[in-house]
Amino acid sequence: MHSIVNGEDTNIACETKMQQHTHVLFVSVLLRICGGIPLDFKVVDLTHDHSNTTIYWPGNPEYNFTILARGNTTGGFWLEMNYIGTAEHGGTHLDSPAHFYKDRLRTHNIPIENLVGPGVIINVKNKAAANVDYQVSIDDLKQWENIYDQIPENAVVIMNSGWNDRYPNASLVFNTDSPTDSSTFHFPSWHEQTIEWLISERSVNVIGVDTPSNDFGQSKTFPVHILLAQANIPGAENVANLDAVPEAGSNIFVAVTKIYDGSGGPARIFATVPIKDTSSGCSHGFSFVLLMCALCIFIQFF
After folding, report:
1. Phi and psi at residue 116, in whole multiples of 5°?
2. For residue 94, what are the β-bridge partners?
3. Is 279 exposed, middle or buried (0-12, 13-18, 19+ CB in 10 A)?
4. Max Cα–Cα distance, the chain, nearest Å
């Protein structure tokens, strides 16, 4: 009697094992058909290279990149190490509020959640082409809202003037034959009344531009910098590649180097943009449904 029971137990165990293998195969086939579970967003780099071509405001030291090691070691492995020296405010970078206002946030104590938010791209390329000293107006923001609804909470709002194509030619970026003389600069940016409106009427985490400054080129008193700093709002400058992200619907991340006591720093700025990809043979939603079905099957055996 005992041997019969053992035989039945063995048969049951074998049958269960075969069922489990069958369902493992089933899930594997589903995932292969649907190409796995792909990301439902693409990532867009909004950062210029930090290099010996990096553009700085006049008076800053030049970029320093020194190779410390690059080659095979005596131990037989490859090793690369470099030294970099850079001013905080050069290339694609973030201005901390402390940059233009006493006792405001420095780079290391800007809350990380304040460096990300829904992307709001204000396209003024045609206006900037007609007037290189153009300043983004409240009407520009209201036109955006007429199309896309109200600027979302905790937004990252960036002007797109088309200046990306000028970088890294300093004469083109500063729009002058004398790029070491700031009094000759001509480039678009924000109007201080627009910034006052954004601060008082909307919720923004970061304000940015694709030009060298959040104040337009001919500014002498930098009111936009002061307003943003007083409100503890960081400012991003020399943001790149804005034509590659939609005017609404992205999320933008301003990953500034966490420099202790800094007034700013180089930043890797990027956006995530939702996508709908059906090229793999099934939609993300259908892939999710199939995966859930497969998991339900598995649950029966655990």
Report:
1. -145, 150
2. 236, 265
3. exposed
4. 102
Q: Which two tokens stand for residue 90?
A: 């050069």
Distance CA 220, CA 222 (A): 6
Q: What is the pTM of this model?
A: 0.81
Residue 234 and residue 254 in contact, taking contact as beta carbons nearer than 8 Å: yes
Q: Whole-angstrom Cα distance, residue 150 to residue 142?
A: 8
Q: Do the Cβ atoms of 270 and 208 come closer than 8 Å? A: no
- Give the type of residue at 287: S
Q: Which conformational region is residue 162 in: left (phi greater than 0), alpha (psi within -120 to 50 degrees), or beta?
A: left
Q: How far lies 215's CA from each of 188, 208, 242, in Å?
A: 8, 10, 19
pLDDT-derived band at 293 (thresholds 50, 70, 90) equals: low
Per residue in 254-289, pLDDT (tens digit) is 999 999 999 999 999 999 999 875 444 444 444 445
CA distance 264 to 237: 11
Q: How many C-beta atoms lie closer than 10 Å to residue 65's C-beta?
A: 13
Contact in structure between 238 and 161 (CB atoms under 8 Å):
no
> Pairing mode, if any, of strands 93-95 and 235-237?
antiparallel
**Sequence-ordered alpha helix ranges (H) in the chain:** 2-33, 125-130, 138-148, 170-173, 192-201, 223-230, 284-299
